[in-house]
Specification:
The chain is α/β, with parallel strands linked by helices and 481 residues long. The chain has 16 helices and 14 strands.
Length: 481
C-alpha cells in the first residue's frame, strides 16, 4: 500500500475549509496517512476553523499549520512537498481549501500513481468538450486557458489538455528528483513544475474533473500570470536550444554535432571528395562520422579525440587519444595533406599556437581546414547592442568558447602565422536546432521553419557577414619569396 498524503493549501478559506474536508469520501479516508492544512497566514479565521475541525474529526489524520508569514501559492506548495518528503509519503495530492476542486474524486486522482502508471496525475477541466463552460468557467478564462495551454504544449513538447488546473497528485519520488524549491512562490509555480517534470522525463497522466466556480475570491493577476508563464516556457525552449544561461533545462545534446556543424561538415566533405586519396589528420574526430565518409573516398584519416567512443577505431585508420586543444600530440606524426581543425580553435586560449603546430605537420602543399562561429552574425550583434552580452549554453556564444572570430579577424590571425585563405564559405543557421527539446512537429511548425529558412537564405545572399552562422576556411602556407 502506498502512503498517501493530502496537502490542502488554504488562504482566507474560513467559509469553505470545513466543507472541503467533509467532502473527502469516507471510504477513502482509511487509505490516507496524513492530511496537512497549510494556512498561508490568512487574514480570516482559516487556522481556527482548521483547529476546530481537527478536534471534532476523529477519523481524519489531520494536521493544521499556520505559516508565520504569507509564503504565496507556490511557497505554500513547497512547504507541503517538503513535509511529504520528510514524512516518507509515497503520494501527495494538492487540494485547494476554497472548494474549487472536488474532493469526491480523490480515489480517481491517486489510482494511476498507486498502480505505478505515472509520476504525476493532473485533473483536467478540458478533457470533456464543453464541460468547463457548463461548470461556470468564464469565457475569458476559458479562451485564455486554451490559448496558453496550446502555446505551452508547443514550446515544451507536451500534449496536455490543460496546464492550469490546480488539482494534482505527485509521486513523492518524482518530487525528490526535480528542483521544485527553485520555483516561483507565486501562481506560476504550477507551470514551472510541469516543465521540470517533463525535462526530467517524468510521465504525466490526466483525468477528467468537473468544473466549479462559486463565490471564491481569485488572487491571480491574469495579465501578470500570463506574462510569467510565457516567459517560463519560452525560456525553457530557448535553453533546450542552447540559448541563455538559466537552469530551467539542460540543452538537448542529442545530435549536437549534426545540429551545430553538419552543414559545415558537408562543405568539407565536398571539398575533400574532389581530391585524390590523401592523408588527413582530424583533430576533433568526434564520433568518426566525417572520418568514415572521407575513408569512402580513399582518404586515410588519423583521428584525435580526448575520449574514445565505442566503434570509433573502426572508423579511422589510426586513433590517438589526446586533447588537441592542449596541443597536437607528437605521436600523430607528420606529412599530412590536410589537417582538420573542425570547431577547435575557439576552445583554445592561443589558437595561433595550434595553427603553428598544424602547419608543422603538413606535407608540402598541404592545407588546414577549420570552421569558426561568426561573431559578426546578427544574433551576437543584437545582444551586444542591447547591452545584454552573455554566454549561452550552445551556439556562437557557447560558454565554453575562449575566442571569438569575425571573418576579417580570423584572416588576420591566419596571416600572422604565414597562412592565407585558399577558400572560405559562409554557412547559415543550422535550422534543425529549432527542433531541440522534442517540440511537436506539425503543419504550423513546418511552415515556420520554411519561412525562417527562406529568410536565412535571402540574408546569406544579400549580407553574408551578418547572416553567416559559421565560416569554413581552407588555409595554405604563403609562398616564400
Amino acid at each position: 500500500m502506498k502512503r498517501i498524503g493530502i496537502l490542502v493549501v488554504a488562504y482566507n478559506a474560513a467559509s469553505t475549509l470545513a466543507q472541503v474536508l467533509d467532502r473527502i469520501p469516507r471510504d477513502f479516508v482509511p487509505r490516507i496517512d496524513e492530511v496537512l492544512v497549510g494556512d498561508d497566514h490568512s487574514q480570516d479565521s482559516t487556522y481556527l476553523v482548521g483547529l476546530g475541525y481537527q478536534q471534532q474529526s476523529g477519523d481524519l489524520p489531520l494536521t493544521v499549520v499556520r505559516h508565520p508569514r504569507n509564503l504565496g501559492y507556490g511557497g505554500n506548495q513547497k512547504a507541503g512537498y517538503r513535509w511529504a518528503i520528510e514524512n516518507g509519503l509515497d503520494i501527495v495530492v494538492l487540494l485547494h481549501g476554497d472548494g474549487q476542486y472536488a474532493p469526491e474524486i480523490l480515489p480517481d486522482i491517486v489510482e494511476p500513481l498507486e498502480l505505478d502508471k505515472c509520476d504525476a496525475v493532473f485533473g483536467s477541466r478540458m478533457m470533456e468538450p464543453g464541460a468547463a463552460r457548463r461548470g461556470g468557467m468564464p469565457l475569458y478564462k476559458y479562451v485564455g486557458n486554451r490559448i496558453l495551454t496550446r502555446f505551452e504544449n508547443s514550446m515544451v513538447g507536451t500534449d496536455l489538455s490543460e496546464w492550469h488546473s490546480g488539482y494534482r497528485a505527485y509521486s513523492v519520488d518524482a518530487l525528490r528528483d526535480i528542483p521544485f524549491e527553485r520555483n516561483s512562490n507565486d501562481f506560476d509555480f504550477d507551470t514551472q513544475i510541469i516543465v521540470q517534470l517533463h525535462d526530467a522525463g517524468k510521465c504525466i497522466l490526466e483525468v477528467p474533473i468537473s468544473t466549479f466556480y462559486g463565490d471564491e475570491i481569485s488572487y491571480v493577476n491574469g495579465l501578470r500570470y500570463a506574462k510569467d508563464i510565457v516567459q517560463h516556457v519560452a525560456g525553457y525552449r530557448a535553453q533546450k536550444m542552447g540559448f541563455g544561461t538559466g537552469s530551467a533545462a539542460q540543452p538537448d545534446d542529442a545530435g549536437e554535432g549534426g545540429l551545430a556543424g553538419e552543414r559545415a561538415r558537408s562543405r568539407v566533405r565536398n571539398w575533400l571528395s574532389e581530391r585524390t586519396p590523401i592523408r588527413v589528420l582530424d583533430l576533433a574526430v568526434g564520433d568518426g562520422a566525417l572520418a568514415e565518409a572521407l575513408r569512402v573516398h580513399g582518404h586515410r584519416v588519423v583521428g584525435v579525440t580526448p575520449r574514445e567512443r565505442a566503434g570509433l577505431r573502426e572508423r579511422v585508420e589510426r586513433l590517438v587519444v589526446a586533447d588537441a586543444t592542449a596541443g597536437i600530440p607528437d605521436e600523430v606524426g607528420d606529412g599530412f595533406d590536410v589537417v582538420l581543425a573542425d570547431d577547435t580553435l575557439v576552445y583554445v586560449a592561443e589558437p595561433e599556437r595550434l595553427l603553428e603546430q598544424a602547419t608543422a605537420v603538413l606535407a608540402p602543399g598541404g592545407s588546414i581546414v577549420t570552421r569558426v562561429p561568426n561573431f559578426a552574425h546578427w544574433y551576437p550583434r543584437l545582444r551586444v547592442s542591447l547591452g545584454r552580452f552573455d554566454y549561452d549554453q550552445r551556439g556562437i556564444l557557447d560558454r565554453r568558447h575562449l575566442r571569438f572570430f569575425t571573418r576579417r579577424g580570423f584572416e588576420r590571425l591566419a596571416g600572422s602565422k604565414g597562412l592565407r585563405v585558399r577558400r572560405c564559405e559562409a554557412v547559415g543557421v543550422p535550422l534543425a536546432v529549432m527542433e531541440r527539446g522534442g517540440v511537436r512537429s506539425g503543419a504550423g511548425s513546418a511552415r515556420i521553419r520554411r519561412l525562417v529558412e527562406r529568410v536565412d537564405r535571402v540574408g546569406m545572399a544579400l549580407w553574408p557577414a551578418l547572416f553567416a552562422y559559421e565560416l569554413v576556411f581552407e588555409l595554405e602556407a604563403m609562398p616564400t619569396v
